[in-house]
Amino acid sequence: MLILGIETSCDETAAAVVRDGRQLLAGVVVSQVDAHREYGGVVPELASRKHIEAISVVIDQALNRAGIAPTDLEGIGVTRGPGLIGSLLVGIGAAKGMALALGLPICGVNHLHGHLFSVFLERSDIEYPFVGLVVSGGHTNLYVVRGPMEIDLIGKTRDDAAGEAFDKVAKLLGLGYPGGAAIEEHASGADAGGLKFPRALINDEDPAFSFSGLKTAVLRHVEERLGVSARGDIPGSFHSVVNAQTRAAFEPEIRRIARAFQDAVTDVLAVKGVRAARKFGCRQIVVTGGVAANRALRERITQEASGAGVEAAFPSFDLCTDNAAMIAARAETLLAQDCVDGLDFDAKSR
Ligand code: KG4
Ligand code: ZN
């Protein structure tokens, strides 16, 4: 089946054309990150407006690059949620309009299931059941995927998502937004020098995660070490302790903190992900979502997995972060099972 995928759940406007759920013909992603950077996070209202500006152009580009006409399409998949409600509605509106005009079957796709199915765009040797770990800015979810229609959520974070922790620590250290890649860059080649942050729930059999204590531990260390207060006026909030003037003086300590923080997150994800694979008799663990772009995480999980006789699989970087190819890939499996939605289906923000 030739499927158009559409993704607008957060701050990327994306469209892609995928054949048979496995062959990516063209994928276009327009990021709004520059528009949100000055606010230090995604501004929902701004995101919706940016999606409206971009959506038609992005869909046209995807079709053109794939070298197909809209009438060649055989189905449409669009992210139904979770995500920002206003953003989701832009993609869903565009998808429904095309489905109606072209008489195509349409289905709403769970964004997180999309992340899981991105692996099939590059690998033909992934077998059910596998453990799927989705680590993104909004989620840290562990699944056992027993089949296309049997996706069991077995664990998730009790508080902050892993990517959220990266972003908050980056903000604290003055590394900008979004912070994951900046933390990775600062941690790379750095030595934690004996600094060790807590690894919450790492020995707990319950496959749940918790990252808010880690964030607070980093905050306390930063305040003590740099002799500054990072607490904001609103309880629980904090601000960046490093600015352009103090940056150079604190650089070595920032690198050390970034490394120790990244080590803590990657340890927990690796140990708990691989433990779940063994517990549920899975030979493979698929790790995806924006945080899976982190090279140290990839190495740590690969190491932990190989010690347990499990294979770790990671989509390439562009398929780990939000994209529409994964939505089309997931839609293929749904449409193949006749999971077609009526044109009255709604966005599901949570
Ligand atoms: O999956 P994604 O693109 O969007 C969501 O659905 O959230 O993930 C974005 C998250 C952000 O928190 C970002 O800081 C994080 O992924 N991220 C990284 C890296 N690249 C992106 N975290 C750690 N290391 C990276 N290299
Ligand atoms: Zn995502």
How do the helices and strands line up, and which of them pair or pack?
Blueprint: E1 2-7, E2 12-19, E3 23-31, H1 33-37, H2 44-66, E4 75-81, H3 85-102, E5 106-110, H4 111-117, E6 130-135, E7 140-147, E8 150-156, H5 162-172, H6 180-187, H7 212-226, H8 247-279, E9 284-288, H9 295-307, E10 311-313, H10 317-320, H11 325-336
Bound molecules: 5'-O-[(R)-(carboxyoxy)(hydroxy)phosphoryl]adenosine and zinc ion.
* Neighbour order of strands in the largest sheet: 3-2-1-4-5
- What is the ordering of alpha helices and beta strands? EEEHHEHEHEEEHHHHEHEHH
Write down the oligomeric state: single chain
Number of alpha- plus pi-helical segments? 11
**Average of per-residue pLDDT values:** 95
Structural class: alpha/beta
Low-confidence stretches: none
Distance between the termini: 29 Å
Ions, cofactors and other bound molecules: 5'-O-[(R)-(carboxyoxy)(hydroxy)phosphoryl]adenosine, zinc ion
Largest sheet descriptor: 5 strands, mixed
Helix content: 40-55%
Q: Tally of extended strands? A: 10
How would you describe this structure to a colleague?
The chain is of the alpha/beta class. It has helices at about 35, 45-65, 85-100, 110-115, 160-170, 180-185, 210-225, 245-280, 295-305, 315-320, 325-335, and strands spanning about 1-5, 10-20, 25-30, 75-80, 105-110, 130-135, 140-145, 150-155, 285-290, 310-315. Strands 3-2-1-4-5 form a 5-stranded mixed β-sheet, with helices on both faces. Strands 8-7-6-9-10 form a 5-stranded mixed β-sheet, with helices on both faces. Helix 5 packs parallel to helix 7 and helix 6 packs across helix 8 (about 245-280). The radius of gyration is 21 Å and the shape is globular. The model has no long low-confidence stretch (mean pLDDT about 95). Bound molecules: 5'-O-[(R)-(carboxyoxy)(hydroxy)phosphoryl]adenosine and zinc ion. The site of zinc ion has 5 residues, from helix 4. 5'-O-[(R)-(carboxyoxy)(hydroxy)phosphoryl]adenosine (KG4) binds near residues 166, 179, 181 and 289.
